[in-house]
Every structure is written in C-alpha cells, then in structure tokens.
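Quick start: read one record
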Amino acid sequence: MLLFLDANVIFAAAATPKGRIQALLQFAAKRTCELVSSRYAIDEAQRNIAVKFPEAAERLERLLGLIEVV
C-alpha cells in the first residue's frame, strides 16, 4: 500500500510521539506500507517544526528516513 503524507501528517507525526499516527509509522517500518511525500510538503513540515516544536526536529529527521520523496 502506498500512502502520500502531506505536511500536516508529517508535522503531527514528529510533534506527537504518542499520537495515533505512530501506528502508521510502525507499519511503514515493517514494510507493510510505503510512505511517500513531496519535497514541498517535507520542507513545510520542517519549517513548522522549527518554529513551533524545535525539540521535535530530531524526531522529524528520523521520520524522514521512512518517507520516499516523489
């Protein structure tokens, strides 16, 4: 299954480490699904994390390892 993540989903995954989106990330880590996004969405998520939750920047970078840029 191929899932496209927009900036809001990427932001939420990084900002809320105990949120429901984490289940999706576990599926992706197990290769049950493939996560894709655009460079634009990733850039937007990075900007918003830097401003609103800078402490989540490292978590976001780990998350980006699961996302293929298309």
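Residues 39-52 form the longest helix (14 residues).
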